[in-house]
Amino acid sequence: MRDTPKKGNGEKRSVGSQILLIIRDVSGSKCDDDGSFPVKIQGAGVDAFELQVNGFWLVQDTIMSLLGREEVTPRTSLTLALSGVTLDLLAELRDVKGFKAGVTLRLVEEPYSHRSAQAHLARVQEMLRAAGPQDSLMEGRSPSVINTLTQTPEAPPTPHSSKNRRANSKAEQSAEAPPPPAYIQPGASELPPLTTLLPNNTHIEHPSYLLDLSLSCWNPPPGFRKLQGDFMYISVHTLEGKQCDITSCPRGFYVNRSTLDVFDPRPASSTPVCHCLTDLLSHLSPQFKHNLSALKHRPSLPAEETLSTPDRTLSWLGISSIHSHKSSFSGRLGLDQELNSQAPDWNKEIQAARDLPQRSLEERLQRDRALLQVNSAFVSAATQAAEKVIDGLVDPLNDSREEAAFLWGGVFMSVPAHGEEWLGGERGHRAAQRLELRGVQGYSDLEGDLQNLHTIPTALADYRGVRLSAQALAPGLQGPEQDEVPNGQLYGFNVGPLENPARRKLLELLAHSAKALALQRHAVLGTTGHQLPLFTSVDAQGILGADGRYYLLDVYRTMPADTNFLVEDSEGVETEQEAAGGDGFPRRYPHALCRLRPELVKAFIQHKHDQFSACVKARMEETGGVEECMNACDTRSIDAVRGACKDVGSVSDIIFEMRFNPNVFSPGVKFPDSELETVALQKRLLKEAASFIFNEQIPAFMNDCIQGPDAPMDGATLRQALHQKGINLRYLGQVILTISQSDLKDQLRHITRLVFTEIVVRSAQRLFNGYIQGVETSNLSAAVSHFLCCLLVPNFSSTSNGEESKKRSRRRGRGGGGATDSTSWSALSGNELWSLICQDAQETYRHKDGLGSNVDHLVEHYGLQKISLLREMCLKAGIQLRLKEYTFDNRNKPPISSDDVLNLLPVIKHVTMTTADATKKFQAAQNSLQKGLLEQAYEKLKEASYLFGRVCDDLHPEACHCQSLLAKVAYLQGRPAEARSVQLRVVVISERVLGFDHPNTIQQYVLLAVYLFAGGETALAQRCLYRAKVLLLTVHGGDHPYTAVIDASYKIILTKKKSLQYLQSALKITNSFRGDMDLTAALILHLLAQRLCVSGDYRGGMNLEKQAHSIFQNKWGEDHPQTKCSSEFLKNITQQAVRVERSIRQGGVELCDALPESLTPSLETTLEQLALVNGILKTSYSTRIMEFKEKLKERKAAEEAEKAKSQSTNEKEASGVPANEGEATGDEKTNGEHAQEATEENTECERGETDAVKKSDQVKVNGEIDTHQHNGDGPTNNGVEECQSDITNGVSTESQSKLKNIMMSAVVNGNECDVSEGSGEVKKQIETE
């Protein structure tokens, strides 16, 4: 890969190194251990500058970093020299002799090769193109639009360090934000205009640099000139009108004497030979030199906005290509064809990256980065290959039209045939492709020695209704057999008895991988009747490639079968399953490849383990108790374990071990008689797992949607939430049925709305796939717009727009009526399409009645928005529409025309490469947060952020979550400036990696508003809240729990009287989704009470605070600190109301007095409330903490009694009474038993606290708030101090400070604060002291 330069590769790598340094500076990570220090760079015609490097960098990585610097761009073919000695490209900087901090490195110009000269031209072309955000929209990528909010003339009031100057220089704002538009105010009936989602043009258009830059007509050079070093001839037309030909040679570029009519390759008189083409062009054209200087000195964007994302995140909206399409010189220079002519061996590239050493952290980071980059390049090549194949630009490798195969760019593309009916036709083959990808992902994630078991790089591309399987070329299939390497199939159902070292090694790898994937070793009957041991499904094949690596192919049936969609011939199965809780299950599905998800298998194993533990305990209780059985020397404990293993279905009878046979319920598979008992057990386990979905996972999903902090907002987050519980999307109909039969169906109406939308979109997509395949290329845009109109407009038909279609056809020069102009797609009507959707929904999800007769039924009964449905359909099918307003109420005019369809893009599914070290550090930070250890979590988050930057330049979803968590912790630690800087990057990353309107982006905008408000940037904070509300209303609508968070946040930031309506709206939404006795409602009631007190309505505030106090009292009781805080605030309101009433009776004597401080929220209280509303801050007071306080009091009393006893003993000794040694020994023994008893008591208390945190029915608010600090004068803090003084009375000062940190620990990102664990640690320290 390093020897194959690609267009833009150097800039990408270099900017990646820059962001690495930025991340390290911002996060404050320790870099001394890594050898970070500055060096001076000079030479090669560039001004001297300083570069921050790390000792572990390779020389070639340093060069790639330099090539992206503004001072060096667009120079290429450079090397580094130290003291006149050229450095080895593969050497690390710290190993170079004489290399140290402050050393001067010289850039040395290297001679060009033909390919490196072409790479230099590509670099120059890319720089002159001046890419901007609009280009990402043209390519179908999601852009970043945060700069449209922050790029204003004035500087922000919050000071920032020079390290973050690039990120913060753009975050300037005007003095005041405009008032909120009417469409985002509570109760607004109209939706926000779509034109507000994306800016039309936010960057200044760059000037032209040349009139033309192309290959000369004299290209390619004749043979005698090739022998003299001519690579190519380039024709240049400058802005001054001068035309000339340039020769590319090993030394660089120079002007020759050729004209349009005469070929004369000799150098022109007085022309220099320049190593960089832009130097020569600046010599030829003063205007080019001036514009190039302006280009280099333009304001640079942060690296997050300029780096290429690993994957293309689709944008369903775009701008018109007529006015925004830029001229590119790449086609006229022939760069696209030349640089991509050599197709890489993707399998060799990825396997070579997988085989990189992993002995140290640095080696693992380099390996993860290499894997991510190669996989990203493979996915990009698969995307381009899919477009080329479907557009008809690639000839098939075979003559079969049923199962065509193609090869482009090193990617093998196949369209599977649909002849095998047992799979379920086309849907079955699509499922097989999807499951194959999932199986490849599962085996790719294995760690350790199991990484020696390889899979073929795989991706799926859905484009224009066709699903293509993209794979790298398998090894050993392109070359002859080698005697020394036993190339061929070693494992599989069709492999007969075979014994050799290679097979034994492969079976060993398969055995270990089966244990990691919870697959059972089993035997089946082969084709000849012999027993065949298997560790996978019967479809899998194991081979030893010509490269000496072991590969596993055809892994689409790796996971066990889902018996809910498997109807056996015997009659007992269906009755048994229905009795287990399914409604109409088992039942048939359109295809025969219904498999359980890995998440479900993992959750079910944990469920069975809990049953195993309970069963062992119950059996021991029956035979004398747990303690007695554990201490006895008999077999009672062993018998209890054996019995529990048998009860839960463990594959082992001595330990708990749960595995599954993927071949159970597979058609055509026969098991030997010795396996019948095991197969019967496997069938029982799979049926239990299927029932587990109904009985446990779907109710758990519903509970998370109510109590969890992040309720799904769109189809993507709904699918993610379902998959996290192991629920396949084929259960969507069952989810609706379960919700409709629940008492919480009204609180889950937003989930019902999303599920209906997902059913309609998925059914419509399946119909769209078959619909669009038969459409001619010239009619694609018209056919897509027609389908969308039929979906969104009831009773829509082609008769209303038939004349307009003919006009469009005539404008294209393909006047209607021709023999080859097939317009059968236009015969589809709205009623017919909806009928087909209902039929597909009934067949797939067993749900038809709820869809009604057209889309308006869903709009009226479930609050579905047509614009949200349009967005989901476009994202699913890869459709990009013009950014404009769409009206769906006018049935006489099509809301979407053919000109509104800008593009059809491939939708790619691919393997996700892991970032193991960064992910582990991130998880460790989350665990620290759960214990309330903020400082420790902050350090780990900085380390995780640095590791993510090293691997993926932060352009990764998990890196986005890590940075967001880092910003929250920094904010809680009193670093609002750092939180603001980090959160700005988080918003950019989320917009580019997840989508500009993704639900996570909405939440990140709100969090950014919190940090901006804390830094005094109120106007900018309001604009961020405006954008978040606009995105939420477009994506889902206002009827969602997160609307209350945005409205409440806006009230806290806004100081005007109109803020009252936002709080009232937030309270109404919260009551409707969480109930009027929820803690969130209590918090909002308190905010309303504060607002009414500020406006002088003390009686109204008193009534609202009474309701809040009632909720706190009902949830926690009178003695809870939060209840006491509410009582104190209510007391202050009552006193003020009495004073006001008295002043009114006395003629208004005291009416002009200021509002008491106890009723006026301070800035600190306001920030605290804002953090509570958004789930940033939470102080947990569980009942276990109260129990802990009581235990400490009891222990203190026992210590005082012991102290009194010892004093009385000392008095006796002083009076001459001898102490009995036996008594003293007894006292020591008693003290030792007391200490041991106290330790056991604390351990038991700690375990109980942990169980209480896990199992208690806690009500969570926007971040799982269970106790809210919101009193105006801060009595909550007083309550905390009072509670702490009670708990820590008699405890050492150091232990008190540690316990105070735990009591006041804030928990971030919706994770429950495990106070018990931290308090347990303090208790152990107290005992030690």
From TrEMBL:
| Gene Ontology CC terms | cytoplasm
GO terms, biological process: intracellular distribution of mitochondria
Q: Which PROSITE patterns match?
A: CLU
Residue spans of biased composition, Basic and acidic residues class: 1199-1214, 1226-1237, 1244-1271
Clu domain boundaries: 323-566
Q: Which UniProt keywords apply?
A: Cytoplasm
Protein name from the UniProt record: Clustered mitochondria protein-like protein
Species in which this protein is naturally found: Triplophysa tibetana
Organismal lineage: Eukaryota, Metazoa, Chordata, Craniata, Vertebrata
